[in-house]
Specification:
The chain is an all-alpha fold. The protein contains eleven helices and no strands. The longest helix has 16 residues, at 112-127.
């Protein structure tokens, strides 16, 4: 178990978050990185922290962590982004920083929590007020993933995918994705937490 971050309890919220970011950047321990990223993702749930997290470039830290080989870091990073992206300024930063392809890549994770957060993040990005067009979020490969997920043994993943298909895709997008049976999204495996399907 990783130790608690070495933070002076009297430094205030910004100081505490800064200490977490510094610890994440300086530690060599994967356990400590995981614990710190989990803490930052939890702080991302509270809108009163958004300004501090932007100031400390935590959104970029989360985006960078999506490319890690460590699945736990990816899970906490996409969870943090999911918590942040309902805010317009955070959504804009994620899009401008090139986060959309990184988030879409999380759909192929073997970790169900990562996939659930990725789907939810995509839905937030599509539904934010003033959201500009992001056709890559409802491109055929993404819709194919959602069609596949809508058949999942996991109730949470199945329901979330069905909401995505009904609320964020036109019937023609769904039909087009169904007609492209040989494309790459069908090769994306379902998360490993599911029971194997019988042949």
């Amino acid at each position: 178990m990783a130790q608690k971050p070495k933070v002076d309890p009297h430094v205030g919220r910004l100081g505490y978050l800064q200490a977490l970011v510094t610890e994440f950047q300086e530690t060599e321990s994967q356990d400590a990185k995981e614990q710190v990223l989990a803490n930052l993702a939890n702080f991302a749930y509270d809108p009163s922290n958004y300004h501090y997290l932007r100031q400390l470039q935590v959104l970029d830290l989360f985006l960078d962590s999506l490319s890690e080989e460590n699945e736990t870091l990816v899970e906490f990073a996409i969870g943090g982004l999911c918590n942040l992206c309902s805010d317009g300024a955070n959504k804009e930063h994620i899009v401008q920083a090139g986060g959309v392809p990184l988030i879409i890549n999380c759909l192929s994770s073997p970790n169900e929590e990562t996939v659930l957060s990725a789907v939810t993040t995509i839905m937030y990005l599509l539904s934010s007020p003033g959201s500009g067009p992001h056709p890559e979020l409802t491109a055929v490969p993404v819709v194919q993933c959602m069609l596949r997920f809508s058949l999942s043994a996991s109730t949470r993943l199945r329901n979330l995918a069905q909401i995505f298909l009904e609320d964020f895709c036109s019937p023609s997008q769904v039909a087009e994705a169904r007609s492209w049976q040989a494309h790459s999204a069908l090769g994306i495996p379902l998360p490993r937490t599911e029971a194997p399907q019988q042949p």
